[in-house]
Amino acid sequence: MTSKKVIELFYDVVSPYSWLGFEVMCRYRHVWNIELKLCPAFLGGVMQGSGNKPPGVVPNKFMYMTKDLKRAAEYFDVPLQAPADPFEVMFKKGSLSAMRFVTAVQEQEKGGDKLVEQVSRELWRRIWSEDKDITEAASLAEAAKKAGLSDGVIKDALETAASKEIKDKLKDATQKALDYGAFGFPLLVYHRNGSPEIFFGSDRFELLAHCIGEKWLGPRPNTSAAKL
Predict the structure, then answer these.
(1) CA dist list (Å): 70 to 16, 18, 61, 184
(2) Cis peptide bond N-terminal to 186, omega within 30
(3) Res. 39: pLDDT tops 60
(4) pLDDT category of residue 2 using cuts at 50, 70 and 90
(5) N or C end: fewer C-beta atoms under 10 angstroms in the chain?
(6) Which one is catalytic: 15, 18, 95, 120?
(7) Smallest Cα–Cα separation from 56: which of 97, 27, 15, 19?
(8) What is the DSSP code (8-state) at residue 93?
(9) Is 18 a catalytic residue?
(10) What's the pTM?
(11) How far apart are CA 199 and CA 215, in angstroms?
(12) What family classification does the UniProt entry report for this protein (predicted)?
C-alpha cells in the first residue's frame, strides 16, 4: 500500500481565500492519497514577518478581490460574502483571539482534527458569511457550540487560549509558515522526499494534483457531499 503524501495547510479564518482552500482540501482528503494536516496560524504575523502588504490596502487589488471572491464563492460552492466593513473586520479587529482559540481546540483534541475543522469552518461562516464578530469570548463560544463542542471543552479552550503555552504554539506555527517561505495564506506545503514544496493561494489545486500524482476533479470531487 502506497504511503500517504503529507500536505500541511496553513490558514487563518480572517482570510476568505483561506476558506476556499480549506474547503477544497477537506473535500479531497478522502479522494487523494494524502494525509492533510491542519495548521492554524496567524496571518498578521506572516504579513509582518514577510514584509507583504494585504490586497485590501491597494485600491485596485481591493476592487478586484471584491469581484473575484463572488466568482470564487460560486465556483467553489462556499457561502462566502464580504462583510459590510471588510477593513474593520480584517485590519482593526483582526483574528488573533480567534486563532488562539482554534489553536487551543487543536491542543485539546485527540485522535484527529474534526473539531478543529468544524470550529474553523464556523468562524469563517461568522465572519465571511454572516458578518458577525469573531473577537469576543461569547462569539467564539457561539461558533464552537454550533461546531458541536461541549460546554466543558469550550470553557477549557477559552481559558487556555490566553495561556502562554497556546500563544507560543500559535507563534511557532506562524514562524513555521514563514520558515517555509510564506507571504500569505492559504499556504499548502507538500513534503516530497523530505523536501517541502509550497503552493500559495486557492488557485493552485491543479498544479498540486500534478505534483502529487493525483487528478484534479473540480471543486467538488464528491457531488453527493452535503452542502455547507
Answers:
(1) 11, 15, 14, 20
(2) yes
(3) yes
(4) low
(5) N
(6) 15
(7) 15
(8) I
(9) no
(10) 0.94
(11) 16
(12) Belongs to the GST superfamily. Kappa family.
The domains located in the chain, with CATH, are 3-210 (3.40.30.10)
**100-145 tens-digit pLDDT:** 999 999 999 988 899 999 999 999 999 999 999 999 999 999 999 9
Burial of 46 (0-12, 13-18, 19+ CB in 10 A): buried
Half-sphere exposure for 45 (CA within 13 Å, toward CB): 22
Q: How far apart are the first and last CA of the chain?
A: 33
Cell numbers 509550497: residue: 198
Residues forming beta bridges with residue 39, ordered by sequence position: 10
Task: State how far the Cα of 193 lies from the Cα of 101, in Å rounded to an integer.
Answer: 33
User: Starting from the edge strand earliest in sequence, which strands make up the sheet with 187-192, in order?
Assistant: 34-40, 5-11, 187-192, 195-200
- Closest to 100 in 3D by CA, of 42, 51, 16, 184: 42
Asked if 157 and 108 count as a contact pair (C-beta separation under 8 A), the reply is yes
Which amino acid is it at 22?
A: F
Q: For cell 465572519, what's the residue?
A: 127
